[in-house]
Every structure is written in C-alpha cells, then in structure tokens.
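Might you be able to check the backbone structure tokens below? Thank you kindly.
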Amino acid sequence: MEQINGSVQMERVLLYTFLEVSSDCRFREQLHSLQSQGIVSFPKGSYGYDDEVELQTDGNRSGHLQNGELVFDPEVNEEVIRIIAAQLAEIGDQFDKEIKARVVNDLAQHFLNENLSGEEITQRMSEAVEGLARAIPSDMEQEKAMLVLAMVLTKKIANTMPSLLQRVFSTTVNYISQQLHNYIVRMLRE
C-alpha cells in the first residue's frame, strides 16, 4: 500500500466516513481494519486522534492550501467530515435504489481480476460512474453526483464481497483524487 500523503488524505477520510455512516454497511469489521492497518489515518486534532481538541460544531469548514494541497486546520475535524459524509450518504441512499445489480457485479468482477492494473480498474470505475451519472436523472451538480455514485458503488461492492474492500477502497480513493479532488476542496470551503 502506498504511503499516505496529503493529496489523497481528504479523499480517504471522506470515503471512510461515508461508508461508516452509510445505511446497510455490512462490512464494518473490514472497514475498521483499514484504519488499524494504517490505510486510513485521520489528521491530528480530528476523528478521535487527539481527544483533547474541542470539536467545532458551528458548521464552519476550515482548511487552506499549502503547496497546492489541502491542509487541515483544527476546525476541519471529525464533526465537519461526519456532517458532509452524512449528507452524501443520504443522497447515496436515494441513488442506491437506482443502481442495478448487474453494474455492481460487473465492476466486482473487474476487481476480482488480479491481472488488471490499478490504472485499468480505476478506468473501469470511472466508466461505471460516468454511465450511472448519465442514466440516473439528477438535478444536482455533476461532480457531486459522481462523487456519491463512486462511494455508493464502493459500498455495494464491499457489501457483496467484503474481501474486496481494501482494493475497492484504494481504487475509489484514486478515482476521487484524480477526478474530484478540487470539488472536495471547494465543498470544504462552503
């Protein structure tokens, strides 16, 4: 597993929290193992990392860019991430019903194919998300719809095959980082 760096930190935390707060998550044990394995780590002062830091609950989101990457201020903490993830999970529950099992099963088969590179699987994820975004009518921003669809696909695949969680999680983080990183930064500023 690659070293955790600033460019994917927010994506990892957001996806992890989305999955954790999602309804019908049937792979919680495997999900929590991502944190214990160091695949997901939370910024100091957030997500229970430092219990002495007060959580800000006034709804302000804070962060700044340093060398082009989002740097977490103490105010960008568990509570802010949970609020955003919970909002996205609610949208995900609506999208969940629209995603056909065939799409999930086809994508799961790609994850099972160990001959496919990470780049090829990320491309398959991208194709699936884009296809679903076109097929599901939505009046929300395209980027938000794609973010939620990628996270819902991750949940549905992991619910079907919990053993794939680590690979699906990493692929989704890569996809989100490549395609939606700037959107996430803007979302945190709102």
User: Anything to note?
Assistant: DSSP finds seven helices and two strands in the chain. Confidence is low (pLDDT under 50) at residues 1-5, 45-70. Helices lie at 6-21, 28-36, 78-96, 101-112, 118-135, 142-160, 165-189.
